[in-house]
Input
Amino acid sequence: MYTSSRTDAAPDRLHSVIVNSFAITVIVNPASGHAAATDQSRLKALLKTAGISADLIEIKDARAALEAGRAHVGTVVAAGGDGTVSTVAAMLAGTPATIGVLPLGSLNHFARDLGIATDLDKAVAVIAARRIRRVDVGTVNDRVFVNNVSIGVYPSVVEAREELRRQGYRKWPAMVLAIVRILRHYRGVRVTIAVGERRVDRRTPFVFIGNNEYTIQGATLGQRASLAGGQLFVYLTPQIRAWQLPRLVTRALLGLQLERDDIEILSGPEVRVEIPGTGRVRLSIDGENTTMTTPLRCRTFAASLNVLSPAE
Output
C-alpha cells in the first residue's frame, strides 16, 4: 500500500512539465464501450503525429494490465472506460509516474471531470501537451478508486444488467430493464456510517461514497468541480424507498429543489461503513462489481496521482 507525500486538502494544481523521454505505454481495453471500434493503427498514427512514441498493449484482464503497467515507468495511458482508468491509477498512485486518459468507455466519468474530451484527436492533444495535475484517489479496504464506491441498489442493478447482456441484450436496454426489475422489489440496506466523530445508523436504498464532492442537482448532476479537495463525500437517501429513486433523479435533472430529507451528505477524509449481520458485502467500485469483507474502511489520499490534464 502506498502513502501520499501530501495529505492536506488543496485546490487543483496544474503545471507544465517536460517528460524526459516522451515515450508512453498505452493499455487498451478492447472490452470498453468504444475501444473495440477504435482503429489502433489510427490511434498510433495520431500519437506519432503528436510527437509521442507509443507502445500499445491490448489487455482485457485487470490483473494482466497491472503487471504490464508495472513493467513500464514514466507515463501509462489508459485507453478505455472508468474501470480501465481505475486499474491503471491503482498501480501509479503514490509514485512519480503519470497516468494519461484516452476516454474510450461508455461513460468516462473521470475523463469528463478532468475536462478531457471524448474526441480522440483532442484527447491525444492533452497527452501531447504534457501538463500534469495532481489529483486525489480514494481507497476502500486498500483498493484504489478514482470516482466512487456504491453499496445497495446500484451493484444489484449492475449484476442484473450483466446477466441480461449475457442473454443478448445491448448495454443500455439491459440497464433500463435491470433498473425496472431491481427497483420493483429492492428493500434497501441497513448501514452504520462513521465519519470523524459523527456516527449514523440508516436504512437506505444506496450508499454512494465519492472521491470528492458530486453535484446532486441540475444540469451538472453527477459531476465534480474538483478532484483535489482531499475529502470523501457520502450520499444516502434514508427517507427514500427504492421505487422512489426515479422521481428523485428526474427532479435533480430538471434542476428542481430537492426535498430537505431526500439526500443526507457526510464528508471527511476517512469513512467507515458497517453492515450488521453480514461479513461480506457486494459493492461497485468505479462501475465494477466485487465483494469485500466488512467493515469497509475508506480513506482519501490527497494529491497522490499525477494525471495528464487540459489547461484550466
